[in-house]
Amino acid sequence: MPKPSDQDLLQRIRDGDKRAFRELVERYKNVSFSLACSIVKDEQRAEDVLQDAFVKVFKHLASFREGARFSTWLYRIVVNAAYTAIEKEQRHRSRQEEPSAQFMPIEEESIFTKLQQYERKKLIQAVFKKMKEEEALLLRLYYLAELSVKEIQETTGFSASKIKVGLHRARKSMLAHLRREMGDELKHLI
């Protein structure tokens, strides 16, 4: 049975089907979480941002334009919620906690493969935290969310040229951070 389209799920939600909203959340929670992490740099805070974002999505679903891409609208809400969370924290300056090490479950059979994937995710998360938030955001939108430059424009409000230049710089920055973290090991991977 094919998965229902976003539009089908949205119609079911409008018709009162709460399971359809849960299905939509499941579909987009991983990339949305990753986007929030790239901005707030903390997994616990990113979870809070995600909760706020999905509440906003549910409340404002009626304002979603038919024919538009749902993921672009959702990611824009997530990005805005993350920046709002940062602004609130800057105003209230609460103590910062170390992020907890929560990663998505790995579904590979081999323990060695699981360990390699875990280490890669850990390394990439560490590199994203060291990068400028805008660069990390652009990489996540482009590669993880698989948004086009135009969709990233709609999500972030950045110009196309700023996105292209930002992606170029972000790739170089990520490579530089990986070189510092991995040293000679990186040569074997490239």
Please name the CATH topology of the largest domain.
Rna Polymerase Sigma Factor, Chain: A
How many structural domains in the coordinates?
A: 2
Name given to the CATH architecture of the largest domain: Orthogonal Bundle
In whole angstroms, the N-to-C terminal distance is 40 Å
Mean pLDDT: 82
CATH homology group of the largest domain: RNA polymerase sigma factor, region 2, helix turn helix motif
Description:
The protein has 190 residues and is an all-alpha fold. The protein folds into 2 domains: 1-102, Rna Polymerase Sigma Factor, Chain: A; 103-190, Winged helix-like DNA-binding domain superfamily/Winged helix DNA-binding domain (Arc Repressor Mutant, subunit A). Helix content is 74%, strand content 0%. It has 9 helices and no strands. It has helices at 6-14, 18-40, 43-59, 70-92, 111-130, 133-144, 149-156, 160-182, 185-189.
Task: List the defining traits of the structure above.
2 domains, Rna Polymerase Sigma Factor, Chain: A, Arc Repressor Mutant, subunit A, mainly alpha, 190 residues
Write the layout of secondary structure elements.
Elements: H1 6-14, H2 18-40, H3 43-59, H4 70-92, H5 111-130, H6 133-144, H7 149-156, H8 160-182, H9 185-189
Helix pairs in contact: 1-2, 2-3, 2-4, 2-6, 3-4, 4-7, 5-8, 6-8
